[in-house]
Write a structure and sequence with these properties.
- By secondary structure, this protein is an alpha/beta fold.
- The protein has one domain: Nucleoside phosphorylase domain (Rossmann fold), CATH 3.40.50.
- It contains nine helices and eleven strands.
- Helix 3 packs parallel to helix 7 and helix 5 crosses helix 9.
Length: 249
């Protein structure tokens, strides 16, 4: 069973050197983006250069570097989902040297009254995905260690936000009525697809994750409202908050 697959007693069979050569040290910070529109806005707003790539047989994802108030910072457009997002995070770390990752994206609200008009700072993530079980011992939840720091920065910036546990799922098509009710009863205020896996990988390799979310669709009891999803996916406000977080960490 997957809950028994955490193995910290033997070494990994895969070595990043086989794909990318020796580890590089080009930046300290990196953005994990999920919106193509936000990604393209960064490319058009800053002078960017390619410093690496995340390669696969179905295509190549460039890793860019730009100057943020005199500091070189990297970014790339991640695929969606815990397994690929966590693996890509480590590949970006290997090629750039980044140890601090600022990640922001959209999510589904499980508590519209608490999340409406506010950014969401995940304090823990229910591990309803697979990747995290290979990086940390089995448990229902993983703590998002830098949530207090992210919340403090958002408060400093005057950005309305709420803190609380979220649910990381591998399959949004199976967010059933029963599972939504369970996660809500446990205190989860949102559902998304990356936090548990990326946090677990960062814990394993000694990296730092700084994450916040914006809710778009709402899963309420037995109803579903996707009206705000497009706006939440591509809201440039998240980018500029992310830039301010990067300056402060």
């Amino acid at each position: 069973m997957i809950i028994h697959d955490f193995d910290d007693k033997t070494s990994s069979m895969i070595d990043m050197r086989a794909f990318y050569g020796e580890r590089k040290h080009l930046v300290n910070k990196c953005f994990i983006l999920f919106s193509k529109e936000i990604h393209d806005h960064l490319l058009s707003s800053f002078s960017c250069e390619v410093i690496g790539h995340i390669g696969a047989c179905n295509g190549v994802t460039p890793i860019y570097r730009f100057d943020l108030d005199g500091e070189p910072v990297a970014f790339y457009l991640s695929a969606i989902g815990s397994a690929i997002a966590s693996g890509s995070c480590y590949e970006a770390h290997w090629q750039t040297g980044a140890t601090k990752f600022v990640m922001f994206g959209s999510c589904g609200s499980l508590d519209g009254a608490r999340t409406k008009g506010k950014y969401i700072v995940p304090t823990a993530a229910y591990r309803g995905e697979g990747a995290s079980y290979y990086y940390v011992p089995a448990a229902d939840y993983i703590q998002v260690k830098n949530a207090p720091r992210v919340a403090a920065i958002l408060k400093e910036l005057g950005a309305p936000h709420v803190e609380g546990p979220v649910w990381t799922t591998d399959s949004m098509l199976r967010e059933t009525v029963g599972l939504v009710q369970k996660r809500r009863a446990e205190g989860c205020i949102a559902v998304e697809m990356e936090v548990a896996g990326v946090q677990a990988l960062c814990d394993f390799y000694g990296l730092e994750l700084f994450d916040f979310l914006e809710s778009g669709d709402v899963l309420a009891e037995s109803s579903y409202d996707a009206g705000g999803l497009k706006s939440a996916n591509h809201d440039l406000g998240k980018l500029y908050l992310g830039l301010e977080i990067a300056k402060r960490i």
